[in-house]
Amino acid sequence: MPLVGFGTWKLRGHQAHQAVLAALAAGYRHIDTATMYGNEDEVGKALRDSGLPRDEVFLTTKIRPSDAIRARAILKSSLRALGTDYLDLWLVHWPSSQSGQSRQLWNELIAMQADGQVRDVGVSNYHLAQLDDLIKSSGQAPAVNQIHWNPARFSAAVLAGHAERGVRLQGYSPLKDTNLGNPVLTGVADAHGVSAAQVVLRWHLEHGIAVIPKSSHPDRIKANIDVVGFALTEEEVASIDALAAR
After folding, report:
1. Active site residue 126
2. Each residue's pLDDT tens digit, 48-76
């Protein structure tokens, strides 16, 4: 799974198609969507129009917990919309309020992974205790837990908890609710000749966290993936970590 992906939440219609096409042209090889986003058709069209081989793009979509009883039909619909015969990653979009329903859906995802239509399965918006419930009930840990993550939300305990369970932490909306004018971020950005947004994204990578920024602006789309030409020092990472305590 490429550590930097392109998020598509709130992108619809022509805008979604153009944004995904721009992302693929900029070098993204990881596209994240969801049934709830209502843009799987546009994502699929962009993938086709890009001319890229299917196996060069890591494709993620998500299923709502309320769709548990028709998970196989939902998967079939997502595959058809995306124009592919398999997913690289399929996530439960959020935990059900009923633990039994969460377990049922998780077992359905595992079964469909065994059928070969999904390479990896995971979850989104789960707490550590909810991960433990799935692991205990099924014997299989989610490959990924996608959660809202940024400097203000940093938690060493949450990061370590995922590592201990063998679950990859993936951060969505990394720039939302982030004060890009914070002196810590701007200071690090000035030191490397990059933007504060790029510093935040690079900070994710320094922690081994996959990140999926989203934008509909071509210039920002390009900038958000241009985060491999510099690295943060341990001191810089620690100073950004400390923003969570402020």
Report:
1. no
2. 999 999 999 999 999 999 998 999 999 99
Q: Alpha-carbon distance 38 to 52, whole Å?
A: 23
Of 28, 37, 126, 172, catalytic: 37
Neighbouring residues of 37: CB distance < 8 A, sequence distance ≥ 6? 8, 9, 10, 11, 12
Residue 63 contacts residue 75 (beta carbons within 8 Å)? yes
Q: What is the pTM of this model?
A: 0.96
Q: How far apart are the first and last CA of the chain?
A: 32
- Residue 165's domain is classified under what CATH number? 3.20.20.100
Domain assignment present for 134 = yes
The answer to the question of residue 1 being in a domain is: no
Listed in sequence order, the residues at least 6 apart from 134 whose beta carbon sits closer than 8 Å to its beta carbon are 102, 103, 106, 123, 126, 140, 141, 142
Q: What is the DSSP secondary structure assignment for residue 178, as one 8-state letter? A: -
Number of domains in the chain: 1
Q: What are phi and psi of 179, to 5 degrees?
A: -80, 95
Token pair belonging to 222:
């390009």
C-beta of residue 238 within 8 angstroms of C-beta of residue 39: no
Residue from 148, 152, 163, 127 nearest 241 by CA: 152
Dist CA 132 CA 145 (whole Å)? 12
